[in-house]
Amino acid sequence: PELAALAVPPSPVGRRVAALGATLVALVGLFWVTIDYGTEYAAPWLPYSLQARLGESVFEELVADKDECHGKRGLEAINTLANRLAQAAGYEHEIVVHVIEGGPVNAFTLPGGILVFYSDLIDQAKDRSQVAGVLAHEIGHVVHHHPIKGIARQYGIELLAKLGSGGYSDLLNTLTSGGNILLALRNGRAFEREADTTGVALLEKLDLRADGIAGFFEQMMEKEPKDAASAAGIWSSHPPTRERIAATKRPATGTPAFSDADWKALRDVCK
After folding, report:
1. Which of 11, 28, 219, 222 is nearest to 134 (CA)?
2. N or C: which end of the chain has fewer CB within 10 A?
3. Percentage of residues of the chain with pLDDT beyond 70
């Protein structure tokens, strides 16, 4: 009681400072909620034609100094599977997969259903199920609109609104200057987990072998046991690789995603 009597009540200035601090915290929280809501719900409503145009332009920018592979049968094989997976998810637009010669051992997704695979990933895969698994993972990014959500998170809904109202060149200049697109396309851990889960589910829905995603991660672990998440690709802030293996582990059952002829054609896509 004696100590309580000695307590000094906060001054009017102190109360105002505390109130201001609480207001600032609330505003910051509201800002991030707005960003999350906007990217999750508003970004996918951007017209598909604009997303596709943006994806095509970014693709041309990113691979301008690289060689694209044109093996007709191999491209047909990987594009056919990609579109089967997308259709199984209810995605209504065409998927286009490009194969770029060389490395890194990686694949990534652009707005508008454009996928890019590096031939080193195909060449170094232990079997066809790994390539199918990576492809299914990338389709997971497509059907959840992760590329356009990532751009919205990085640059805000306002920039996307400019795109929708005719400010296409402004957005493209912003994205392709100084490597900004690399940052915008980085997928957070939540996106990666969602793509992993969706990829496995789509393979299983089509009664295809679904062990390839975990198999790919295991191969990365063998090559880079200390930093397998980074070795799996430069585009993402990956969850721990062991966690992803445990989450996507499946038995080696089901129909192969590629026939023998299609797999051989895909392996020869750059020849």
Report:
1. 219
2. N
3. 65
Between strands 114-118 and 107-110, the pairing is antiparallel
Q: Do 63 and 100 meet the contact criterion of CB atoms below 8 Å apart? A: yes
Which tokens in the block code for residue 31? Answer: 């800002």
- Phi/psi of residue 159, each to 5°? -65, -40
Q: How far apart are CA 157 and CA 161, in angstroms?
A: 6
Token pair belonging to 1: 């009681």
Whats the size of the chain, residue-wise? Answer: 271
CA of residue 261 relative to chain centroid, distance:
29
Residue 18, both tokens: 């505390």
Distance of alpha carbon 264 from alpha carbon 214, whole angstroms: 22
Residue 12's pLDDT band, with cuts at 50, 70 and 90, is: low
Question: Which helix (H) or strand (E) segment is 190 a member of?
Answer: helix 189-205
| CA-closest candidate to residue 91, choices 248, 198, 196 | 198
Please list, in sequence order, all residues whose beta carbon lies within 8 angstroms of the beta carbon of residue 230, skipping any fewer than 6 positions away. 224, 238
* Rounded-to-integer distance, Cα 3 and Cα 245, Å: 58
68 token code pair: 């694209």
What are 90-124's pLDDT values in tens digits?
999 999 999 999 998 999 999 999 999 999 999 99
Mean pLDDT value of segment 231-247:
67
Taking only the tens place, the pLDDT of each residue in 117-169 is: 999 999 999 999 999 999 999 999 999 999 888 877 776 655 655 555 555 56
DSSP 96: E
The amino acid sitting at 172 is L
